[in-house]
Amino acid sequence: MLKSKHIFSIAKDNAPVEGCTVSEKVLEGNACSMSVFSIAAGTNISPESYDYPKIWKIEEGVAEVLYLTAEKPQLRRGDIFIVPQNIPVGIRSKAGCIYSEILFDKECIMNDILKSAKVFALKELLPYKDGKIVNMDLVDSDKTKFVIMAFDAGTGLSEHSAPGDAIIFCLDGEGIIGYEGKEYRIHEGENFKFDKNGKHYVKAEGKFKMALLLVRD
Fold this sequence. Notes:
With 217 residues, the protein is an all-beta fold. The protein is built from one helix and 18 strands. It has one helix at residues 10-13; strands at residues 21-28, 32-39, 43-48, 54-67, 74-76, 79-83, 89-93, 97-104, 109-110, 119-121, 133-140, 144-151, 156-160, 164-179, 182-187, 191-194, 200-203, 208-216. The strands form two sheets. Strands 1, 2, 3, 4, 5, 6, 7, 8 and 10 form a nine-stranded antiparallel β-sheet that branches. Strands 9, 11, 12, 13, 14, 15, 16, 17 and 18 form a nine-stranded antiparallel β-sheet that branches. It starts with 9 loop residues before the first helix and ends with a strand.
C-alpha cells in the first residue's frame, strides 16, 4: 500500500520487470479501489470484460488498447481512458508502460464529459481562471470521489480533513501540500497520499493542476 507523509512517483516507483506484467493494489475502499500496473516491453494484458466502471491513467510510457477488432487507440503519459463496460478490452505496450487502474462501483455517477472508450489528456479537461480555483467532479458517490482542480497562482485550500484515504496526482505545474504540520512541494508526475482525517491544505505559488481520488469508508 502507498505510504503517506512523503512525495513519491508512481511511474518511478513501479519500473517494469523485463518480460513481465506486475500489479499492486494501492488504495481500497468499499466502493472504489486503485491498482498500479507495469507492463514490460512486448507484453500485454489480454482482453477481458467487466460490468463496472473502470479508468486507466497512464503514468509513463506508451500503450495501446486491445479490442477484439482492428481498432487500437494509443495511450500516452497523462492520458486517461474510460474502459467500456461488458466489452472485452486489454492493453499492451511495445516499449513498456506504467498505469493506474481505478475501479468504481455501479452506483458511482460519472461526469458526462467522460465518454466510454475515449482517450483524454486529463489536465486539459479544465482551464485556469485568473484568481480562481476551478473544480470538476469526474466521478462522485457517497463513498468515493475523483476530482480535478486548477489553481491560479496565489490561490489555495485552507486546512481541512477528509473522511477517507486520498491520493493526489500532480497534473501540471507545482504545488505545495501542507500535511500534519509539514509542507511538501509536489511537481507534475508526482503523487502524495493523505490518510483518513489527516489535516492538510494546498497552496499554489504558480499555476497548478491536480487530480484527487478520495475513498470514503
